[in-house]
Amino acid sequence: MAAAAGLALRTAGADGSSSCLSMERIRALTDLRELEAAYGCLCAEEKVVEEELEALLEQQGTIENKMVALHRMGPNLQLIEGDTRQLAGMITFTWNLAENVSSKVRQLDLAKNRLYQAIQRADDILDLKFCMDGVQTALRNEDYEQAAAHIHRYLSLDKSVIELSRQGKEGSIIDANLKLLQEAEQRLKTIVTEKFDIAMKQGDLPQVERFFKIFPLLGLHEEGLSKFSEYLCKQVANKAEENLLLVMGTDMSDRRAAVIFADTLTLLFEGIARIVETHQPIVETYYGLGRLYTLIKHLQVECDRQVENVVDKFIKQRDYHRQFQQVQNSMMRSSATEKIEPRELDPILTEVTLMNARSELYLRFIKRRIISDFEVGDSMASEEVKQEHQKYLDKLLNNCLLSRTMQELIGYYITMEEYFMRETVNKAVAMDTYEKGQLISSMVDDVFYIVKKCIGRALSSSSIDCLCAMINHSTTELESNFREVLYNKLKLGFPATTFQDFQRGVTSAVNIMHSSLQQGKFDTKGIESTDEAKQSFLVTLNNVEVCSENIMTLKKTLESDCSKLLSQGFGGEQAQAKIDSCLSDMAAVSNKFRDLLQEGLNELNSSAIKPQVKPWINLFLSVSHNIEEEEFNDYEANDPWVQQFIVNLEQQMAEFKAGLSPVIYDSLTSLMTSLVAVELEKVVLKSTFSRLGGLQFDKELRSLVAYLTTVTTWTIRDKFARLSQMATILNLERVTEILDYWGPNSGPLTWRLTPAEVRQVLALRIDFRSEDIKRLRL
Amino acid sequence: SWKAGLDWTLGKTSLHIFKQLLCCLQWYTPEACLQFKDHFQAQVRSACHQRNTGTVGLKISKVVVVGDLFVGKTSLINRFCKDIFDRDYKATIGVDFEIERFEIAGVPYNLQIWDTAGQEKFKCIASAYYRGAEVIVTVFDLADIQTLDHTKQWLEDALRENEPGSSFIFLVGTKKDLVSGATCERTERDAIRFASEMQAEYWSVSAKTGENVKEFFSRVAALAFERSMLKELEKSNGRMAQIGAGNLIKLEGNSLDAPESNSQASLSCC
Fold it and tell me: Does the keyword Cytoplasm apply (chain B) (predicted)?
């Protein structure tokens, strides 16, 4: 209740104006305590109101005083109003005055500007006269720099000013002056050109540079650059011709004789690069930025001419075209007599790639120089101008004779390199040798050495297209030709040996001797050569596997080599994609070798292992499993089958273990265990078992699985799951016991046998009645 | 019509999307055409649908474009890949290369287009790129009948580097805008005869006007895509069979030859 009252009070407080308790609420009050509380509350309220009223009354005096003061201020305000009006009038007047003055000032300003212009024009005219006089004097004194500076001043004068001046009173004088100036300009141009030509003829570099700097002052930027380039080209040509003469006289025993043409090209490119380096600052200073392209364009013409000379000499001296022709002929003809010896091609191939590498380096140099010059020069230019410049550059780089000549040389190179690779690979295959104790034969290492060498050489040309082409050729070589070689070796098969025939019985050995005799020759080396054939098969399998791995290694090496090349700025925009595509083709070939390995293993399994293993397993049939206690104990002492089988297997696999790489041997044992499982199942289904016979089989199976587990790295339990389930069935006490393992009772066991197969196995037990088996609900 | 199933996005780096499966297998002329169906094979469709598109990575097919110089190989490719036509002739040096992205039935697919040089002196380098081509496009100039004669040689060179029957072949006549209707018809008759001898599909196009260019490349992409999918499916089926235990029993006979001839037969199905 008190809480409720408190709440009511608080709301009233917030209200402020009305009482804290409404009349209705007071009327509704019945309880004495509540009434007292309400009364107390009202009393407090009354006190507050009274205090407020008193405070208000106290203020009455102050307010009255203030009112009196206000009344007194009335007349003063009227005075102020009058003053203000007067002030406004004055301000308007002043404003008008100021307006008037400022328009006058403006007029004065205009007059002043005109005056300045007049002075400027007078100055210009004076300048013009001064220039004219100066030019004349300078020309007389052969001070061409001064003269050019005057002309430059004249050229930078505002043409309209000159035009206006001519219309003035002194027009005729100015006209005459102008005419003189123009004449002087023409004269100066002629003189500078002439002097430049003379200096150029005399090879006087200081004079050449002197006049080169004058051209831009006369507005002859293009002419200056072209004249100067002419001079530089001459320098380049002289040097190049000199070098070429030296080349023709080089002794063949010289250390660099084999790459002398590449060296000559290098000298040429270095010379041009040096010229660009030395003269770029002068061009930038006197001709401005963005002019380097023009200079290099002119130089490139000479470069092309000199490259043509060098390449012509190269083609002639090295018999390049004839060698290419010979290679082409050799590739078409298979007869060995007229074939060109691949080793003879080695030096020329190296030289061509070196020549191309130098060219690429040079082209990259001028590309970078021009791009950076354009970039600075075009920083304010529009996008169109930039694109235009880019187009110029592309055209210069791609269409220059240097690029095209090198492309042609590289074209021929690729065919010759392909031939070199193919022939050398063929040689390596022909000279294939195998050393005892090695897993692989010599040709695998040889072939990959050759392929690496050829691709490496293509890579050294710095041309991405050339490199990709050689990667493609290598891929083809490995995929078609070399894989074919290995494939053919595997196709010969793994021979069934005479040694094994001896084991099988004397009769077959006699048969073989008979047949050999009938053919008129008794080959005493028979055993040896079959051994060789066997070894050859195993070595080939190892070879195939190593090839597959080598290809992946080669791919990885090339990837990193290529990324190095690309990071140095060689190759176009699509270079990376091109390389990726070619390398992924190469990687695919690795898988083809893997497939071939699998095929070879299957062949080995079916032709060497199966014919051996099958008879050994068939021996199981001759060991009765329908046995009693006595025989069981006898088997315990003298194992009838499984121990011998294991020994045989071990003997046979030992041969493969020694001859095959661990990975391949692993795959082979896996194939072998599968074969054993399948064949053993077949013979078990052909046998009959007693209770103890079943136990015997279980023991035999356990020994076999235990042995096979030791020779394989993979788990083989899965492969023998069906057999061990068969053993379980053959070990049952009675038919119905199967139900303890079947269906809901199977527990963790997953049956690999179908119900029909279970019945079939149960029927192998002679002591189980067929009615019982039939009655089984599986 | 194929357009219904095709959605071209504009712009330079466009992604060409074939939304549905039953699309864009439209040929140019029934007289010289590699396939008549308007649908992908059922197993390809279901594989696409289930996103069961096989093993790793993006499917890529390699297209090699060959033909005489100045017949317009580069122009044809530039019209398709960049949608530009440059009047200035610029001889291709060595090889150029473009990758064009597609999405066919929801499966990302790339065409790798190799543009080779037509000039005799660059043939050595260009021919190194013919290998492994899923598609060979032989190009001639409709206005220059001699270039048609040369297509046989170009094709022969390209086929030499590839397994027989492993590549689709197209014969394409360019510069259709330059020849009159009658001339075009006459040349087309010859070309179609050539095409059927080459076992190629024939198309007439103009890179300048863009006529048939997109249609042609869509057709190329669709056929190459289907074959690459079929190959992939066959491969994965083959792998599956190897895992099964039953495989071991059928090892008799010349097991080395069997897989080779198998794949051969299925490759030449079209």
Answer: no
